[in-house]
Amino acid sequence: MEAKAVLKHARISPRKVSIVLDLIRGKDVEEAMGILENTPKAASEYLVKLLKSAAANAEANFSMEKTKLYVSKCFVCPGPTIKRGQARARGGFDRILKRTSHVTIVVEERD
User: Fold this and answer.
1) Angle at the Cα of 13 (from 12 to 15), degrees rounded to 5?
2) Domain that holds residue 54
3) How far is CA 101 from CA 26, 63, 87, 98, in A?
4) pTM of the predicted model as reported, rounded to 2 decimal places
5) Counted domains in the chain
6) pLDDT digits 0-9 by tens, 51-104
7) CATH code, 84
């Protein structure tokens, strides 16, 4: 049995999130939480809340033990890109792409 939590439209680039997700994939929930709380990346704040939510979903909805949980899958997909611009010299215009992410964390119980 698996429990998951999904964060949609997070205002952070998927490239930045995937670096942090690689650190916690396959780890126990307690260990992953410690890694996230001590990692100085912007994505860590989003992922701490998401991991807590996935663990709470597992306990409340599927009666799993929190001590046996581990991060079985975690991935990020690009969300919609917000287009902005900046004026440049001689009437030019540069496009600024503000990227968003959809992050999913799945936890399972170890046997």
Assistant:
1) 135
2) 2-109
3) 21, 30, 27, 10
4) 0.90
5) 1
6) 999 999 999 999 999 999 999 999 999 999 999 999 999 999 999 999 999 999
7) 3.90.470.10
